[in-house]
Input
Amino acid sequence: MRNRSFTECVPILIILFLTLSVASVAHKASAAVQTEKTASVPAAVQFLADIHKEKNVECASCHGKDTAVDDNETLVNQKCVDCHGTLDKVALAKKSYEEDEPAGEVEHALNPHKSHLGKISCTACHHGHVTSWAYCLQCHHFEMKIPGGTVAAELPPAPKREMPIPEIPKDIKTETTDVVVIGAGGAGYTAAITAHDSGAKVILLEKQPIPGGNTMLAAGGMNAAETRFQKEKGIKDSVDLMFEDTMKGGQNLNDPALVKILAKNSAGSIDWLTSLGADMSDVGRMGGSSVNRTHRPKGGAAVGAHLNDVLKMNAEKRKIDVRVNSKVVKILEDDRGGVIGVVVEGKHSKLYRILAKAVVNTAGGFSANPEKVAYYKPELKGMTTSNQPGATGDGVDLGAAAGGQLMDMDQIQIHPTVSAGSRILITEAVRGNGAILVNAEGKRFVNELSTRDKVSAAILSQTNKSAFLIFDEGIQKSLKQIHGYFVLDLVSEGATVKDLAAKIKVPTDALETTLETYNKAYDQKNDTEFKRPDMPRPIRTPGFYAIEIRPGVHYTMGGLKINTDAQVMSKDGVPIKGFFAAGEVTGGVHGANRLGGNSISETITFGRIAGENAAKMATATKP
Ligand code: MEZ
Output
């Protein structure tokens, strides 16, 4: 079907409007809101509702007649799509957001309708009665226009980071289900799908307007040992070696029982994802791993956006009840401390209660909560983060308030390579595929494949507390994800090493010598200088590229203590009945330092365990 333009759509909507004769209470209320808000708008800004009104699109065309808006804003979003087309269609229609972009270069263009956020709802960015703002502006600094907003529009104030537990009125609405999952990132979707497939009725809650959590940002891949993809590529690995690498990387602070589960179930988790339609066939390496075991889509594409799509699609196929804009404000307990449900604050539905036989907490970590990070690790005060804005640690607070034991809260990981001056993570896979790090003097200073704690510490002791990732055309071609850094304008380029040195203002001789020495080490398969264990590619194929990077807060290793069944442990050291957790909200798997690629591994493996055990518990008590 041809995509209708907005103007073509207007008459249809008017007819619809007239047919429905919507001089309704809802319409009036909506119009009143509109007038009231419009009155306070600065002259230059019109809200989306005003723009529609000017085009004779009445309120009920978007809101429907007498229909209360649900927290997913389902009807409003459907109306946007009916009129303007799906996200894919809008993305095609608007290939370039850079005004001077030549038509032939649309491949490189930024397109907010097509991004790693996947298929998000229109109302995540487009707001009818307040200034619209692009969700991605919370991490990026794009100069892009949005109807009913402005480029310079002030973002709404950041959500309150502390979670005062509100007074819960007794008479709020109550729903019931088997399993409630808090947080729709990778662990949440995995737990929800697994619980559903084990026979439970599930509600998956997400406080942000879009699902995905930090999973949607995950880049490098998912660690797994003894997988069929490793076998196909002749990679010799073992569950024991993954266990040893993970313990060593975590400085043996990890809970060995959890690490055993992680390693033992990792290949099964890859098979599970594959059975859902994921492509995990490319295998690379992250720092601290003895062999290539980081799985990701073909060509080295980012793992998170792909998994996010696959998990969302599978939840939709199963008709799992996923609710965004739905923040859990309290976990409910019975008089013996067992967990029996949650209280939710919906964007539109306000406070309501869901009683459940089991609750799974997959609400993530707190790297995007600078106050909390600084509280537990004062030396990280003011440091940027690679995390999505919802990673504020509510899940940890909710779990602790429900009697859960916290552990290792001061174990906070900084990722060595966040693009300088931004929040954009440059995946460790760039180093894994061959890039080196040089300082402002043009010299290498560290084994680039060492663990994150060591590489970050080395960078922080260099001039400007930053460094440059250096790679060439061969490395750029080997990893699809790198393309995105060009699109985001993060890469300095040179046709020769000399050109590049001039661009990034490092001494030419030093950079040339550094690359000659490194390429010799590659040829001799021996890095005598820094003992880098794997040099998959030389750096000698023009063009030459650099990205300036700085460490940023990336992952919180601490959280709720769980056992191997993903049950949350109480402060007295016993499992809390009906309470499970998985993913970054938990502590224990990664100890003092998480290995790159072990986060997605943990979310999938422990998400599956939590979902299965929650469902088992829920269905066992079914009449
Ligand atoms: O597991 C991670 O955090 C990871 C692989 C990050 C990255 O550098 O891509």
Summary: Residues 411 and 557 are 5 Å apart (CA to CA).
